[in-house]
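Hey, can you fold this one?
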Amino acid sequence: MSRQALLVGPWDMVVIGGGITGAGILLEAARRGVRALLVEQRDFAWGTSSRSSKLVHGGLRYLKEGQFGLTRESVHEREHLLQQAAGLVEPQSFAFGDYVGRKPGKRAFLVGLAIYDRMAGQRGRHYFGRDEFVAMAPNVATDGLQGGMVYTDAKTDDARLVLRVLQEARQHGGVAINYMAVESLLREDGEVCGVRLRDGLSGDSHEVRARLVISATGAWADRLRVPAAGEPRAPCGDGAGAANAPRLRPLRGSHLVLPAWRLPLAQAISLMHPADGRPVFAYPWEGITLVGTTDVDHADDLSREAAITRAECDYLMAALRAQFPQLNLSDNDIIATYAGVRPVIDSGKADPSKETRDHALWLEHGLLTVTGGKLTTFRVIALDALKLAATRLQDVPALQGQLTSQPVFAASQPLRYTPALPAGQASRLQGRYGAAAQALVDAAQNGELACIPGTETIWAQLRWAARKEDVCKLEDLLLRRTRIGIQLRGGGIDILPRIRSICQPELGWSDERWAEEHHAYLALWAAHYNLPK
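Sure. Predicted structure:
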């Protein structure tokens, strides 16, 4: 079906934004019979939802800020995702060294972990003596080390989580289109009644009408909230005046990627930065080691792709050198970098790290804005949005009354035994592709079930993405459908010839088109994923 044909309604709801929040809303709406369309101006998960810290965590550090409700909610969602999205959301243990004079101290940390466990309905040993801790976390600094705490959270591939949620939404009748930008809102008698779209691929314009428009655009949300000239603000869904609704404080979180052999970790290492006491982590992910994150105000134009700054790179490297002094890590060890902008609600705190990670919703003249929140709590955010949407869609029975949580993914048949598939890949593919996992394996050609060296990605994932996953640009394939662009030096430049042989026929691109995409991708990588100057 053509992109234009997909836009044909009627629609109860148009969701703007193809990150985890928009995808979650589309899924929860579609499975309840709502006629829902999602449009994304760039690629699915292009923004924050492919540039996060990849952690599905309960927010242990939020306890220190007194955000017990947010932590409890996050812990419960983490546990649901571990059970219902196995292979995509996986447990990750964290180790935190107990050094003389370091804060938080042993007593405070263990109290926090006891509360954390209680929220999750778990109990476990968390403190280990010096020798045991060094065995569990080799290469950490030992000067002043008395022992350490160990606890468990979870990790994921954030972009693949978005794509799996969208896949599930489509199975329930939801429609999602990437590279379809909202130029403006349509209004009748002061009420939002749809959107004016421009196709980023063809340049064609379209008008789509809907009974409700939901803005799930994250850090970009304030742009759509500007009313038409002379139009008054409408009441928020919670009864507060929309003029008093919170505004966003875009915060940039930047990360480093190092080879696993250069910073080998059996588990994640959580530490407090020696300069300012902020939490920093390093952990194993998809065959490499991730280091993050910063938390700084992002003043750049949001229409431009975010990138790490030299100061942020130096800040993270200083933390690594303090925690792993004997490894002598340097800039030469960095494979790639990436940065994302978080949609944090502005409460006026001087320290960006102390801003709440809770979400907010407000309804203004038929535009429902949903922003803030965390990757972990996307289902809670989606259900809260539908509760407010129900006031506008009163004839949709499934939205009225109590909206109960459902399993995030439908159960699917396990993969058939395939000897050529590397160990652990069956669970990994099942989690990422669900019911499509078997078709992906069956589509593999000779040698394509092997892992791409330096990653946990198999070659067949590239073929499947090119064939079935709305790849419009080479960057979609290498930065979001797979994560090769941040897992390999130069964004995977050394294996681009083989990627071309697999994907160009599937995409139907001419040699000229491939050359254009090749050039554009490498220029993008050099500007936004390379080491800063």
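Residues 425-528 form a domain with the Helicase, Ruva Protein; domain 3 fold (CATH 1.10.8.870). Let me know if you want another pass with a different chain boundary.
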